[in-house]
Each structure stands twice: as structure tokens, then as C-alpha cells.
Amino acid sequence: MPENVPAAHPVATTGPVKVVGTGLLGASLGLALRAAGVPVQLADASPTALALARDVGAGTPAADGDPQPAMVVVATPPDVAAETVLAELARHPVAVVTDVASVKAVIAEEVARHAGAHAARYVGSHPMAGRERSGAAAADADLFVGRPWVVVPGPESLPEAVLAVRSLAADVGATAVTLGAQDHDDAVALVSHLPQLAASFVAARLREAPEPALGLAGQGLRDVTRIAASDPQLWATILVGNAAPVARALREVRDDLDAVVAALDRAAQDGPLAPGSTGPLARVVAAGNVGVGRIPGKHGGAPRRYGEVTVLVPDEPGELGRLFSEVGEAGVNIEDLQLEHSAGQPVGLAVLSVLPSAVEPLEEELDRRGWRVVAR
Ligand SMILES: NC(=O)c1ccc[n+]([C@@H]2O[C@H](COP(=O)([O-])OP(=O)(O)OC[C@H]3O[C@@H](n4cnc5c(N)ncnc54)[C@H](O)[C@@H]3O)[C@@H](O)[C@H]2O)c1
Ligand SMILES: O=C(O)C(=O)C[C@]1(C(=O)O)C=C[C@@H](O)C=C1
């Protein structure tokens, strides 16, 4: 094992693992593997991205004379993923090669068409984990913990190559789910690509909104727009790579939109009690109730990793620091933190992510110390 690789829990992946594309996904994977004691070689088309990934601790830049990788993970944007997979299959003739791109069918087709016998060592994959920021600076060793990781074997993939990719997912805390490439693309059109567009549509309406209106923004807007901050170029590549399923989902949304606009036009013209106005509006919200109730983890499905304690914090110097030290005095570790603050308001909300078992005791302790704990 090379220097600087920390001691770790036992894993099936022995490495070395070469990560090509050391942005958010590649560097997060590097961090997670290194935390598990697996040696990681890094490569990127951008020397700066490579240096940053090295500096955050995601691995060591690949160099001549390195041991051959047992596995190569391609974490480049989808439009160059297939050509990178093909190059890595040729460069490392015994390595299992996977990619983590958000679309699968176009890449599987390119690999099947051009890889020849190498295709046996290729297995597509897609961790359903990410965030709205790009690059290694946003990388997180825990990014994959508790998340599904779709494994997409091709018709030629060797069983041991499939097992290696499933093991990789498990070793970084994810749950491997096997799907065909087109089934994967149809699924993510609904659960990932349409949500990205919906967030962008809503946030785009805010470009011309008057400042006082923006000052009223509450949690509803924040909930539906987080991913509107995503990288436009990456997402354009993802969307064209899954064009037909995304267009199909959008046509269904367009039908709903047409029904809602027609109902609102009736109400605007003939008054709120106009026949045919409330019904379609209630129907679309009720359909959303059914859909949101089916999202695992949101309403009693899979357990969340952390619980949340929400505290009202006066917008005064030192108050946030006082909150943090009192949480520390209560013996609770803050795993994550979100601050919500509306312009011109004298208070903000601090949403503290803590271990689920710490939620109640921390709420009681903060309440006892005079903090306003918000039930959400
Ligand atoms: N961002 C997410 O939430 C998310 C989640 C799951 C999967 N993915 C997929 O993971 C992949 C990477 O996404 P990301 O968010 O890490 O992007 P990113 O922009 O943070 O990183 C991509 C990296 O690839 C490098 N790169 C580009 N072309 C290259 C090439 N030809 N050879 C080598 N390196 C190259 C870039 O320099 C950059 O460092 C994409 O295919 C994306 O679809 C993204
Ligand atoms: O949570 C986020 O920020 C994400 O957008 C992650 C997300 C998703 O839609 O779930 C985005 C695209 C990826 O291909 C996989 C994961």
C-alpha cells in the first residue's frame, strides 16, 4: 500500500483504482476509496482540476511506472465518457472499466460498437448521488453513503466485472441496483432530469422579479430551486444524452400545464367559483400528493442519515458561534449545517444535521438554554 493511505474498514475493492475525471464525482470517489484504504490514481484533461483533486486528498496523479489499475472509473462529462472508456479499455488491458455518467444507453451503444473483445471488461454505472456544485472543491467522501448506485451490465460484460462494480458501490457505502441501460434512462428522466428542469423553470422566473418579491422567499421556493444552481454545460450534455425520455416526460407536464392554465383563465375571467376552475387545480395538486408520497425516504420509507434540529438565530454578531459552542457543550456533533436567511429579517434559521438519536436531547437542551427551537 502506498504512503498516506489511511487504515480503514475491510473492503472488496483492492485497487489500485484509476479515476479519470477528477471533478465532483471523481474526487468524491477518490476520497471515499482512500478512506477505505484503497490506492487511487487520478487523471484529468485539466491540470488544474487534477492538482485540486490531489490537494483535497482524492489520490495521486497517475504517472508512468504506476502499477496497473485493477479498475478504472471514468467520471468525465457524458459527452466524452464513451471515448474515454474506450481509451482506458485499450490502455489497461486487464482492468475492469466503468463510468459514472448520468446517462447510460448512448454510452453503452458506443462501447458495444467500438470496444470489440474489450467490451467484456466494461460495465456502466451511475451513482444516484451528487450535488449542484462541480469540481473537486465540492467533493465529499460521504457522497455515496446510503444512496442507490445503478449498475448497468452490457450483453458482453463478464460476471466478475459486474461483481467488481457492485463491490465498488458497496465499498463506498452505496447500494447497487442492476438495471438495463434504457430502463435506467427512462427512470432517471423522471426522478432526476425532469426535477432539474422543473427547478430551472421555476428559478428562471425570478430573473426579473422585483427585489421586494425576492425578499419574501420562503422555504417552499428554496425547496424547489436548490438544483437550479447546477452546471449548465454538464446538464445540457446530460439532457441531450437522454433526449427522448425527457421529451416524453415534458410533454406530460405540458398537458398538465395546459389544463391548469385553462382553469386559471376561466377563474380570472368568470370569478373564482367559475365552473371548471377549482376541479383541475385540485386534481393537479392531489396528483402531486400521490407522487410525493411514493418517494422513498420522504414519508417513512428508507431512513434518513441524519435528523434535523432547527433553531432560530438572532442576526447579531457572535450568535451563531454561541449556538455552535452550546451544541458542543451538549456533547453533540454537527454533521451538516444549512443556514436560511431572508433579506431584512432580524433572525435566520440554522438547520443542524445531527445523528437521529441526538435530535430530541439536543432540542431539549437548547430549549432549556433559551434558544427558540422550531418544530418543522
Ligand atoms: N454532479 C452530479 O450530481 C452527478 C451525479 C452522478 C453522476 N454524475 C456524472 O458524473 C460525471 C462527472 O460529473 P461531475 O459533476 O463530477 O462533473 P465535474 O465538472 O465536477 O467534473 C468533470 C471532470 O472531468 C474532466 N474532464 C472533462 N473532459 C475530460 C476528458 N476528456 N478526459 C479527462 N477528464 C475530463 C473535467 O476537467 C472535470 O474535472 C458526469 O458524467 C455526470 O453526468 C454527476
Ligand atoms: O442532489 C443533487 O444535487 C443532484 O442533483 C443529484 C442527482 C439527482 O438528480 O439525484 C443529479 C444528477 C445525477 O446524475 C445523480 C444525482
From TrEMBL:
Domain ACT stretches: 308-376
CDD domains tied to this protein: ACT
EC number(s) recorded for this UniProt protein: 1.3.1.12
Keyword Oxidoreductase part of the UniProt annotation: yes
InterPro entries: 6-PGluconate_DH-like_C_sf, ACT-like_dom_sf, ACT_dom, NAD(P)-bd_dom_sf, PDH_C, PDH_N, Preph/Arog_dehydrog, Prephen_DH
Keyword Oxidoreductase in record: yes
Pfam families registered for this protein in UniProt: PDH_C, PDH_N
Pathway stated in the Swiss-Prot or TrEMBL entry: Amino-acid biosynthesis; L-tyrosine biosynthesis; (4-hydroxyphenyl)pyruvate from prephenate (NAD(+) route): step 1/1
UniProt-listed GO biological process terms: tyrosine biosynthetic process
PROSITE patterns xrefs: ACT (PS51671), PDH_ADH (PS51176)
Stretches assigned to the Prephenate/arogenate dehydrogenase domain: 15-294
Family stated for the protein in its record: Belongs to the prephenate/arogenate dehydrogenase family.
Official protein name in the record: Prephenate dehydrogenase
